[in-house]
Amino acid sequence: MAISINIPFTEEEICKLKVGDKVLISGTIYTARDAAHKRLIELLDRNKDLPIEIKNQIIYYVGPTPAKPDKIIGSAGPTTSYRMDSYTPKLLDMGLKGMIGKGLRSKEVVESIVKNKAIYFGAIGGAAALISKCIKKSEIIAYEDLGSEAIRKLQVENFPAIVVIDSLGNNLYEYGQEEYLKYTKMV
């Protein structure tokens, strides 16, 4: 059974989520990929304000396709997360509490997730058209010149994801591999 969560969310709510939990996310989340992350970090390095409030928020690593007529957004599947790894610890230190993407994260990101009591969710890359149906509103709020990589504010309802790295650093990619190996030894 999936756990419903609303964003923004608290550290207490994050700490209740465990690796492998299926979640349905509702509320406001932001999109950003590597080009936008680079600009965010440059702002922080110059002691400037960010164009978004990241405290207790989630960033979804996505560059959606253009919306078709009468649609809110095009396909919106996750981007490979390691591309944001060099930027992520600084954003987590600023209060970011969650990320949605696909794939492995670096040791530094996992350590920062634990330090900041944050969480990393995985979304299904092949389900981009289905995921877009969970997006009820989309608004570009920064870096429009980046096209699909602009920062968007999304209103989502029952966005499906899975806890890949929980606030204790438990990692589904490692756990899943261990479980698979145990299973193959039994067979």
UniProtKB/TrEMBL annotation:
Q: Which SUPFAM superfamilies match?
A: FumA C-terminal domain-like (SSF117457)
Identify the enzyme class: lyase
| Family under the similarity heading | Belongs to the class-I fumarase family.
Q: Which domain of life is it from?
A: Bacteria
- EC no. given is 4.2.1.2
Keyword Lyase: yes or no?
Answer: yes
- Molecular functions per Gene Ontology: fumarate hydratase activity
Q: Which UniProt keywords apply?
A: Lyase
Residue span(s) of domain Fe-S hydro-lyase tartrate dehydratase beta-type catalytic: 3-174
Keyword field contains Transcription regulation: no
User: Which NCBIfam families does its entry note?
Assistant: PRK06842.1, ttdB_fumA_fumB
The name under which this protein is listed is Fumarate hydratase class I, anaerobic
